[in-house]
Amino acid sequence: MAETAAPATTRQKDLSLRVSPAAQLRAAFETDSVRGLVELSEVPFLTMVGLRVNRNSDAGQRVASVTGGLPAGCGGVAGPGSTSVLWLGPEEFLVVAPTEAHESLGGDLIQALREALADGEGQVVDLSANRTTFELTGPRSRAVLEKGCSLDLHPRVLKAGTALSTEIGNIPVVLWKTGEDTFRIFPRASFADFLGRWLLDAMREYASPEVP
Amino acid sequence: MLLISCPNCGSRDETEFHYGGQAHVAYPENPSALNDREWAEFLFYRDNTKGAFAERWLHSTGCRQWFNMLRDTVTYEIQAVYPMGSPRPDTPGPAPESGTASTAADSTTTGTAAPKISGTSISGTSTSSTSTTAPEGATK
Ligand SMILES: [Zn+2]
Fold it and tell me: What is this structure's pTM?
């Protein structure tokens, strides 16, 4: 796997050929976002790495030193700056990093994680193509999510900086509250079209004047 | 819809979970020694308990971890959630009326003699008192 995806040093990369899982919805996201109330966009091609390691083991501590920490429990997000580690399970984490961190673009994150894990118990797997990222932002974004998510999304319960695996519109996703009115949603690629349309539908009422 | 308390994630909707069937079905120590009937019983035959039932659950859209749960198959009350590999916890008192009768018997036996008689007489009165209160509620 790693050999076939080796960095193409000589071959020129044509990044315009890449198609993100919700590329066909880009225009709809643009036109149907309700400015100032709730806006939806896809943040394509983020680098994502699946980590399976016991955070208390030696290997876990080596990996944590690369990522800037591993979250301790459900909802936790660790890591300063642009690379974040989301808690998925007791020994399972998702690293989310900018596009440029991917090894095909010259980034060294995945290699550094592999070297940190070394022969310790665990896994470092490039999952960048597994999920795409939606960003839902604006004061109505919570109301939109509440139409299809049974978690308590009220700010007194769900704080910014929390990420939870759950379901939105019956689609399994990771929901990451990145700011007071901003959510990142990670659906698997094959669910991106459905969830994108579901969110657009849930947003539609806010384009009309509020009924008093 | 059950609200299941995952040991890792807390309360979540039943739709986030996967049912794993009866818990504590031990793999045969010597599988090759089993005849066809015993093997079939290990693979396919499960209890069909009315009441407290120990079963396995997977938090499939959450932390993806298995755990055991003690659930009443009549009332759907979740009585215990405990880790895989640990033994089934003691079942709580089967019915509230027998529970109160036994504690009442205990409290009386500390001071007086003939515990069995007092215990049976108390349980007798408690059941008769509940049977008299039940029709009152029914007539309302
Ligand atoms: Zn869980």
Answer: 0.80
